[in-house]
Amino acid sequence: MNKQAETFQRFGKAFQEKFCHLMLSDRPFCDQVAEVLDIEFLDYEYLRVFVDILMNHRTKYKVHPSYEIMQSRIRTDCNNYTKALKEQLLQFYASILSTDRIENSQYIKDSSIDFCRKQVLKGAMMKSVKLIKSSSFDEISKVIEEALKLGTDNNFGHDFIKDFEERYTITSRDPVSTGFERIDEICKGGLGKSELGVVIAPTGAGKSMVLVHLGSEALKQGKTVVHYTLELQDTVVGNRYDSCISGVHLGDLFHNKKEVLYKIQDIPGQLIIKEYPTKSASTETIKQHIERLKKRNIEPDMIIVDYADLLRPVRSTSEKRFDLENTYEELRAIAQIYKCPVWTASQTNRSGLNAEVITMEAISEAFNKCFVADFICSLSRTVQDKQANKGRVFIAKNRNGPDGLVFPAFVDWSNVKMKVLNADSNESIADVIKDSETNTLQFLQEKYKNIKK
After folding, report:
1. Exposed, middle or buried, 265 (CB in 10 Å: 0-12/13-18/19+)?
2. CB-count burial class (<10 Å; 0-12, 13-18, 19+) for 170
3. Are strands 390-398 and 342-347 parallel, antiparallel or unpaired?
4. Which of 297, 298, 362, 376 could pair with 352 as two cysteines, CB 3.0-4.6 Å apart?
5. Contact at 8 Å (CB) between 318 and 362?
6. For the residues of 26-69, what is the DSSP string, one character each?
7. Other CB atoms closer than 10 Å to residue 6's CB: what's the count?
8. Which residues of 38-70 are buried (b: 16+ CB within 10 A; e: fewer)?
């Protein structure tokens, strides 16, 4: 009696749906698995029909279909199926279009390829048994070798013909807002996925505060932020997030714990703060930590490194400038690998300490750090500026829009507050300071309202 053919049944329905989604979204994976896939491995008819439409299009046109083309093919072919099957197929494709990220994609790829290759090898071994009496050893060996070759990794890069549709598919940068309206305007919504942003400032100007502001804005948008601190304690960084989000001054946090908790507990995003001693962590350490987070289903939407100059080089050279250049290139690679924006900061040299406007010339140690960054802005604050809660933001580099622009800014690090103003705006620094003082007065009145005179 013949045993029933094995299927993906033990993996479950969700696994099979994600597998089919990956076949459409990842052309190299589709090429690889197509060599060993039998659509009968799929337990659900609507998934078998989906894969059949996909493979027929690839065979006929020699091009992997885009999402739009696949949608058109499904709507056209649906008329050939029953009403129930048609509804299932359309519902499945609607779920594909509404899914931004496929969780555990690498596990699904590895498991499905392993399963399919084993089934092909099992078939080759059964065929070899029949050939033992009638064929030579070389023929039997060839059958086994051919089976072992199928389903191996065959991703050789972007195929000019097969990936034709991919070149004409509009891809989203999926930018994360900086919280500065004017800066978002000139960089098309914020820092996009796979992009590296650098904040330049002299010591004491507030580089770390700017990074906390950027992280806080991402949290308010429901993003998952992973913040690496190489200079400050994780609890200190956490307090700064508390102040930035709640509006409670840093000096008053411990006396207003309940109010802070009330204001931060409904933040839709997730924040992970990881502390490493200065020069003890490298970009490889960061990647290993992110991989551990991913195993717990924590996928970063933004990575903040405070700051890159304090990372240990993976490969140390004889000159610090080369080490720093390599570090920034590796940070850019992390942004590309995990497809999310990466923010970091860099110190200026002594010329930036009391400069009115800080340009890239003032960046310390290695000017080559600027080459790989997608967005660079500087924060300059003279002694007088610090006393008046003022500053200037200079857009030094912007791959997605204009640069060379200077904007006045209101800066109050007592509650991690910063606002970038338009140079020609009617709103002045004085107005923002007045609003801040009013908010502070209201906070103090609320704080002490129950105290009897």
Report:
1. exposed
2. exposed
3. unpaired
4. 362
5. no
6. -HHHHHHHHTT--GGG-S-HHHHHHHHHHHHHHHHHSS---HHH
7. 14
8. eeebbebebbbbbbebbeebbeeeebbbbeeeb
Quickly tell me which residue has 């709507």 as its tokens: 75
Is 395 within 8 Å of 405 (Cβ atoms)? yes
Phi and psi at residue 415, in whole multiples of 5°?
-135, 30
Q: How far apart are CA 128 and CA 350, in angstroms?
A: 76
Among residues 83, 370, 339, 76, the alpha carbon closest in space to that of 200 is found at 370
**Triad 193, 300, 273: Cα angle to 5°:** 125
Instruction: Choose among 204, 183, 208: nearest CA to 376.
Output: 183
Peptide bond into 307 cis (omega under 30): yes
Q: Give the β-pairing of 302-306 and 342-347.
A: parallel
At 153, give phi and psi (nearest 5°): -65, 120
| Superfamily grouping for domain 181-447 | P-loop containing nucleotide triphosphate hydrolases (3.40.50.300)
- Tell me which of 145-159, 215-229, 278-292, 313-327 is least confident: 145-159
pLDDT one-digit tens code per residue, 165-180: 666 665 667 899 999 9
Helix (H) or strand (E) holding 288: helix 283-295
- What CATH number should be reported for the domain whose range is 8-167? 1.10.860
Q: Hey, what are 421's tokens?
A: 């103003």
Question: What are the tokens at 299?
Answer: 């996928």
**Share in percent of the chain as helix, strand, coil (round to 5):** 50, 15, 35
- Residue of 13, 372, 21, 414 lying closest to 246 (CA atoms): 414
What pLDDT, in 10s, does the model give residues 91-143? 999 999 888 778 888 899 999 999 998 888 888 888 777 777 777 677 767 76
Q: What is the pLDDT of residue 156?
A: 61
pTM of the model: 0.64
Query: What residues pair up with 418 in beta bridges, in sequence order?
Result: 411
Is 41:6 a contact under the CB 8 Å cutoff? yes
User: Measuring CA to CA, which residue among 345, 423, 425, 413 is closest to residue 381?
Assistant: 413
Instruction: Please give the single-letter amino acid code of residue 384.
Output: Q
